[in-house]
Amino acid sequence: MFDNLSDKLDKAFHILKGHGKITEVNVAETLKEVRRALLDADVNFKIAKDFTTKVKEKAIGQDVLTTLQPGQLLVKLVKDELTELMGGDVAGINLSGNPTVILMAGLQGSGKTTFSGKLANYLLTKKNKKPLLVACDIYRPAAIQQLYVVGDSIGVEVYSEPENKNPVEIAQNAIKHAKANGFNVVIVDTAGRLAVDAEMMDEIERVHKAIQPQETLFVVDAMTGQDAVNTAKTFNERLNFDGVILTKLDGDTRGGAAISIKSVVNKPIKFVGTGEKMDAIDVFYPIRMAERILG
Ligand code: GDP
């Protein structure tokens, strides 16, 4: 994961090695390489620029050049700033509702259905919850079928109304069903389109208003880099979502979405998907990710 970025950052810090005395020029050169590495990872230009400016200010503030191991201190400053950029602390999931309603939003193919299953499985096996999966895609019967396959594989009930073409009603009826049958989490998998379109945004906004979820999670394919960030912006403007789910991190060699999305939408990444299987889900820890990137 992000091997290129890790390699390039490693090379950037090499500039500081092999120098008897480190100068301001060496530090500036290193930070320039750090910026280049971030740009190559598909991090937005402004974010990369602000990032190195902040690290530089901190380096000056902490008198990096006069410390015993300036290289190590600079690596630490970069690590701290990366952690901050990715959200700082770990963001939990709000399970306070009775039942807790979780709405999944995102484009088709982003991994919504797979992630709905993973989340249900996580809540069932790790949080002792009784989740209900809800199929709210009224356009693609195959999507409903796919959720049944996922639900079967983890032993979680799926609610659907194949004849009903009103997703608001389906979601509301599912919540009633959950209340009547002792489910304490309702995960609503919605329809996605291949690109953002007005009808899709109106529909999910209507569902969102009607069911008032405790958690609205925006699911996005990490491999799409800056496109992921732009789509996140559009969804956030309409839904004011609570958190981001980055899927397919296992296939993401660059890392741009993971690094930039938080600072663009100001919403935390809550979970990541790291494979197709139902247990390929991880809580997102910014510090662990920063440590991994810096090796
Ligand atoms: P949806 O249209 O948003 O519901 O997307 P799906 O859940 O159907 O996922 C689309 C494709 O991505 C499927 O082939 C999934 O198996 C695959 N997928 C989903 N999440 C991950 C992940 O974390 N890693 C990998 N490698 N594949 C994933």
Automatic annotation (TrEMBL):
<keyword id="KW-0547">Nucleotide-binding</keyword>
<keyword id="KW-0963">Cytoplasm</keyword>
<protein>
    <recommendedName>
        <fullName>Signal recognition particle protein</fullName>
        <ecNumber>3.6.5.4</ecNumber>
    </recommendedName>
</protein>
<comment type="function">
    <text>Involved in targeting and insertion of nascent membrane proteins into the cytoplasmic membrane. Binds to the hydrophobic signal sequence of the ribosome-nascent chain (RNC) as it emerges from the ribosomes. The SRP-RNC complex is then targeted to the cytoplasmic membrane where it interacts with the SRP receptor FtsY.</text>
</comment>
<comment type="subunit">
    <text>Part of the signal recognition particle protein translocation system, which is composed of SRP and FtsY.</text>
</comment>
<dbReference type="GO" id="GO:0008312">
    <property type="term" value="F:7S RNA binding"/>
</dbReference>
<feature type="domain" description="SRP54-type proteins GTP-binding">
    <location>
        <begin position="268"/>
        <end position="281"/>
    </location>
</feature>
<feature type="binding site">
    <location>
        <begin position="106"/>
        <end position="113"/>
    </location>
    <ligand>
        <name>GTP</name>
    </ligand>
</feature>
<keyword id="KW-0694">RNA-binding</keyword>
<comment type="similarity">
    <text>Belongs to the GTP-binding SRP family. SRP54 subfamily.</text>
</comment>
<keyword id="KW-0342">GTP-binding</keyword>
<keyword id="KW-0733">Signal recognition particle</keyword>
<dbReference type="GO" id="GO:0006614">
    <property type="term" value="P:SRP-dependent cotranslational protein targeting to membrane"/>
</dbReference>
<dbReference type="GO" id="GO:0003924">
    <property type="term" value="F:GTPase activity"/>
</dbReference>
<dbReference type="GO" id="GO:0048500">
    <property type="term" value="C:signal recognition particle"/>
</dbReference>
<feature type="binding site">
    <location>
        <begin position="247"/>
        <end position="250"/>
    </location>
    <ligand>
        <name>GTP</name>
    </ligand>
</feature>
<feature type="binding site">
    <location>
        <begin position="189"/>
        <end position="193"/>
    </location>
    <ligand>
        <name>GTP</name>
    </ligand>
</feature>
<keyword id="KW-0378">Hydrolase</keyword>
<keyword id="KW-0687">Ribonucleoprotein</keyword>
<dbReference type="GO" id="GO:0005525">
    <property type="term" value="F:GTP binding"/>
</dbReference>
